[in-house]
Amino acid sequence: MFSPRSRSLREGHDAWLRGDLDLAVERLEACRRARAGLADALFPLARALSERGEPERALAALDEALASAPASEAGRLFRALILIDHGRAAETLRDLEALAPRNVLAGGLRALSGWPENEGGEASRRLVLPPGALWLADVAGRILARLEMRFFRERPEEALDHHHKLYAGDPPPPSAREPFAARCIGKAERVASALPRPLRSLALGLLEVLRRLRVRPSKAEGDPVLEAFASKRFDEVERLVAALPFPTEGLLRRLLELLRRLALRPSPPRRDVDSEVFLGIALLARGEEAKALRHLADARRRHPDAADIHFIEGLCHARAGKAAEAAWSFVRAARLDDVGLNEVLGGVARKLGVEIGLAGRTG
Length: 363
What we know:
By secondary structure, this protein is an all-alpha fold. Helices cover 71% and strands 2% of the residues. The model is unreliable at 172-178, 215-221 and 263-268 (pLDDT under 50).
């Protein structure tokens, strides 16, 4: 169904989205050697090389692509992304100004490039974008990187607390803590209590068995990792996550899960995405960004499509003052969950008093 070239191109893009830049370069270089559809392979190859810390090789790949497709707007946009990320935005402003009237991405990058967010004053508190630009991952991710860096620079404790609350949440009210199954069984017990004695004893006995099999604490009350994380016992979070077994993979995992469901037994705790995220934030809160990034890179190999892991990686880079690296992680998170990332972006902007408006609209 797919040619080897198109398969390598798709695999290269998927590897980039997972953050596996070495594999992305390998697959896209295979497309480059095949020469078919050269520009289609060279544009994403340039992005992967740039994010791997090789901007000159990235720009050379774009030059090669544009030689085969000189009228390509995509090539000019990829060049703009690379130059902006490596602190050379002035070299691409003319291209962005020419493309902006007809291209939303170009308009968004042009607005972001001219935004004096670090200079103070009214201009730094308002960013005006063309309609639709905020829903483009390459724009939203780079805006969030700048906002998060400002947040951590100006109010580091508040920034950590804000993101901790995003994942810990607020304790549920008492009425919401009783699981749905427990409420149903409770109602059934009240009905059974009105039955004649022989039937009442039998019904109540069966309901008690069902309660023991099916009713378990809510996640907030029964998950020791979440409890420790919500209480900011970050050393305990690391110890608890380290003790969790890794999930069983493949057919065996599905078979074990089926057997547990047939037996009405809950799955045992495993190192899932939540626990990996909690540990990443715990390490970040302790000021161990490098250790957090090593942990998250390992977790990303197990959960490559988890937007939260890419997002926490971005937070670690932002706190370390690495704008480009933060942007790349946030862009991947936005590709995987644009609504979630935009909600975070809006919350951080409000914390900082930054208004994000749309060109052509007032008020």
